[in-house]
User: Which sequence fits this backbone?
């Protein structure tokens, strides 16, 4: 549209696609000019700068390996402790229904030794009703467990994704030019990494 944009860059990856690149030394002296490919082929001052940025281990483009201990991972889920506590308690009640039903079921066999037919029928009916109620309660407790952990897990995932997205937005322009920070990689990380953290937290909590 007839517009000229001047970019002053120290990170060469930000001007890789520029139409014209001017390489300057001190006192505003222009030593080279051309496109990225042309300046690389010349193997002059621009080429040396490009090589230095690629090979410098202390460059801020160097990836840093980040270690996160188990305590930090567990602390990530602390805001949802109410849901986690409720889900844990509900899961304990859901698990307790199975042995209680087994005990009541064994009591049914004792009714075969009951010589009083009317009492046998009454006791059998009462035990059957109790078993049905326990199964219903077990289903409710199981649903409550699933609901509590699902809510806490999704809240954790949402919070981690928002934090990761905010961190991405704070990066410099050159950071997005790196191959490992392409759009597909970043969207995959936002989608998968937070969910993986959720799985790890609740797997270690069991």
Assistant:
């Amino acid at each position: 549209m007839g517009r000229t944009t001047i970019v002053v860059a120290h990170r060469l990856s930000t001007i890789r696609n520029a139409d014209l690149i001017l390489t300057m030394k001190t006192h505003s002296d222009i030593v080279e000019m051309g496109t990225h490919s042309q300046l690389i082929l010349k193997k002059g001052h621009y080429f040396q700068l490009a090589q230095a940025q690629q090979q410098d281990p202390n460059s801020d483009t160097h990836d840093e390996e980040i270690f996160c201990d188990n305590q930090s991972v567990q602390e990530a889920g602390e805001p949802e402790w109410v849901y986690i506590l409720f889900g844990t308690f509900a899961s304990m009640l859901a698990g307790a229904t199975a042995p209680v039903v087994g005990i009541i079921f064994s009591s049914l066999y004792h009714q075969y030794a009951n010589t009083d037919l009317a009492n046998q029928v009454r006791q059998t009916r009462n035990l059957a009703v109790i078993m049905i109620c326990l199964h219903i309660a077990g289903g409710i407790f199981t649903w409550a467990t699933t609901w509590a952990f699902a809510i806490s897990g999704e809240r954790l995932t949402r919070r981690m994704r928002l934090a990761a997205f905010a961190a991405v937005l704070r990066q410099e322009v050159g950071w997005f030019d790196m191959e490992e920070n392409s759009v597909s990689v970043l969207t995959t990380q936002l989608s998968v990494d937070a969910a993986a953290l959720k799985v790890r937290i609740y797997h270690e909590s069991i």
Remarks:
- The first helix runs from residue 36 to 42.
- The domain at 70-205 is CATH 1.20.1560.10 (ABC transporter transmembrane region fold).
